[in-house]
Amino acid sequence: MHSAIRPNPGSNMILEDVISFLKKVPPFQFLDDENLQTIALNLSMEFYPKDTVILKQDEPPSDALRIIKKGGVKVSMTSEHGDEVVIDYRGEGDTFGFLSLVGKDRVRSNITAVDDTLCYLLGKEMLLKLLDSQLSFTEYFFKSHITKYIDRTYQEMQDKSMFYGGSDRLLFTTRVGDMAIKGVISTQEDTAIREAAVIMSENRISSIVIMNKNNIPTGIVTDRDLREKVVAKGRNVLEPVKNIMSTTLIRVDARDYCFEAVLKMIKYNIHHVLVIKDGAMAGVITNHDLMMLQGTSPLSLTKDIESQQTIEGLIPVSKKINNIVGLLLKEGAKASNITKVITEINDRLVRKVVEFTERKQGKPPVPYCWIVFGSEGRKEQTFKTDQDNALIYADPATDAEAEAAKKYFMVFTEQVRDSLLQCGFPLCPANYMASNPQWCQPLKVWKKYFLSWVSTPTAEAVLNSVAFFDFRPMFGELSLADVLRDDLKSLLADQKVFLGYLANMAIKNQPPIGFFKSFVVEKGGEHKDELNLKIKGLAPLIDIVRLFALEKGISETSTLERIETLRSMHTIVEEYADDFEHAFEFIMLLRIHHQYQQISSGQAPDNFINPNRLSNLEKRSVKESFQLISKVQDLIIERYKSLIW
Questions:
Q1: Does 459 fall in a domain?
Q2: For a FRET experiment, which of 185, 360, 605, 627 has its CA 20 to 30 Å from that of 621?
Q3: Which DSSP string do the residues of 535-600 spell out, in sequence order?
């Protein structure tokens, strides 16, 4: 909160002093005495103690043009990761708030007092009158001011972006090597911090790669490191730069798609990624290189989600997600690329909803972890599917704490459920949601659930297992989910009988191909002559790979990640890994194309396709995928022959 002095126009101000001040400040210095006196009479004043946030990024427009009388402000932007990027510092005689005031736009940057600061405030009505009547005043703001503070910020990103200005190519279809990559500027580990900072300043770069004596990159130093580890801590600038470098170097290959760089930046909360080409460093790509896109994009949509402060603000943003799927399909993206991008976006949306709900309801009585399962847990969502979620909370210490937790989470989960519904995530028809008290329990109860399902594998227990064992932590105290995962691994060790039940499930769902390898389709009803791609194609693949993953006790939940991890661990997967991946990618992509066409024509998406409408190549690929499933099911029967019925 700032301290404010808001007198009536002109009161307690010595007009001569105000006019004398304005005569030294452009563009007021270009005005005659009559106009200056009118302005002086219309000014008010505000005082901002040091570190006051005067204007905040993405909030409503400024209410006045502020002219700094004394002190100074910092102009910065906050990235989607919460990182601060300083754009400018302004002092006595400088102004701020013009663009959002005139453009009626959200505030584009944060304005923070770097010292005790006193400002004159010129209201919007008076400012607009001056813009309409005083040419020199207007030219100053629209030529000098905008060029200095806006063009300088965005021009470099626009120039480097291959997508700006109407190009159809987007992040997820363009190779990193096709972007204009910043050249690598490096220095040795024993270089002084001050010298490294000088190199960065002279080269106008935001990062510098640190090399060891063998000229191998061992770390990176960014503007943020200099601010947080040197300036903020008062560190001796003569220390070697290796003392402040970040040692985790995240890399992408020049042949990777740009969205791989985006995903790594989002995942690791970083803004610089090294680019490797033919085994050697080729450059550095930053979040600024990737941020400015025309139209809908993963980065712009993610940024839009992060900027929202209410559930109501998230609703229109959530409606844009299906557009991303369409753009990816148009550019020929693989199914796994589509699900990676959509998963990252949906995850952010869900986390925001849970975060807002907690903020609204207050601190919970015990720590908790929001988990997701099903396609969301496997990171295989495309269009929004039913809510499949649950909540684990820490074991209460007392009966009173247990009762408080039960009451808190009952309201909490219902609010999250309703908010997700508003954001386009349908309710689960089977009520597999955290709002169902059965699926909102302390850790000890979840352990009992898992023990019961594994030790007594009834039909219901097996169904619960295949759903919940794909769980993935989303928000909160993630260690609760880690403990449960470790407990599950221990439970499954040598549980041949339970795995036998899962094996039976994996082989019961036979692929729809007949003796002569013709498709077996629905014989009647609404979907006569059609195939269910999800039930007969994707589900058997997912069930098979899940069975193998639980056999080996691996933590991955995504089908493709499970396949990759099992390559060197499981004899069947080792032989058929590539075939599994190709089949999964193909069937998933066929399903996505089908559903997108339905949505585009105003129909509700389903999983049924008519094989007669497929091309010959598509038919052959579907049959080969089904034959693979059938072959591996035979291997499972042999593997579990004593437990198959």
A1: no
A2: 605
A3: IIIIHHHHHHHHHHHHHHT----SHHHHHHHHTTT-HHHHHHHHHHHHHHHHHHHHHHHHHHHHHH
What number is the average pLDDT over the span 115-141? Answer: 84
* CA 118/CA 71 separation, integer angstroms: 6
Distances (CA, A) of 97 to 49, 260, 418, 544, 624: 18, 37, 38, 59, 63
Same domain, yes or no, for 247 and 367? no
**The tokens of 448 are what?**
């009992």
The answer to whether residue 302 is domain-embedded is: yes
Distances (CA, A) of 436 to 180, 406, 410: 51, 12, 8
Give CA angle at 552 (378, 465), nearest 5°.
Answer: 50
CA distance 140 to 495: 77
Lowest model confidence (mean pLDDT) among 224-233, 242-251, 265-274, 423-432 = 265-274
- Whole-angstrom Cα distance, residue 456 to residue 346? 35
One domain, residues 513 and 624: yes
| Res 290 pLDDT > 70 | no
Same domain, 242 and 331: no
In a domain, 488, yes or no: no
Contact 298, 259 (CB under 8 A): yes
What pLDDT score was predicted for residue 94?
82
Instruction: Indicate the SS3 state at residue 272.
Output: strand
Structure tokens at 160: 């480097």
Cβ atoms of 370 and 476 within 8 Å: the answer is yes
E strands, 296-448, are: 368-372, 389-393, 440-442
Q: Which domain holds residue 189?
A: 171-291
Q: How far apart are CA 215 and CA 404, in angstroms?
A: 59
What is the rounded distance in angstroms from the CA atom of residue 298 to the CA atom of residue 314? 15
Cα dihedral 606, 611, 616, 621 sign:
positive
Question: Which two structure tokens, joined as six digits, stand for 374?
Answer: 């099903």
Bridge partners for 393 per DSSP: 368, 442
CATH number at residue 407: 3.30.460.10
* DSSP single-letter state for residue 148: I
Report if residue 554 sits inside a domain: yes
Same domain, 583 and 548: yes
Pairing mode of beta strands 186-188, 53-55: unpaired
If asked whether residues 302 and 442 sit together in one domain, one would say yes
Calpha distance 173→166 (Å, rounded): 15
pLDDT band, very low/low/confident/very high, at 305 (cuts 50, 70, 90)? confident
Q: What percent of the chain has pLDDT over 90?
A: 33
Q: How far is residue 341's CA from residue 172's CA, in Å, rounded to a whole number?
A: 9
Burial 254-286 (b: 16+ CB within 10 A, else e): bebbbbbbbbebbeeebbbbbbbeeeebbbbbb
How many angstroms separate the CA atoms of 287 and 83, rounded? Answer: 11
pLDDT at 365 over 70: yes
| Confidence check: pLDDT of 412 > 90 | yes
In 3-state terms, what secondary structure has residue 396? Answer: coil
204 shares a domain with 190: yes
CB 558 within 8 A of CB 380: yes
Classify each residue of 556-566 as buried b or exposed e, where b means 16 or more C-beta atoms within 10 Å of its C-beta. bbbbbbbbebb
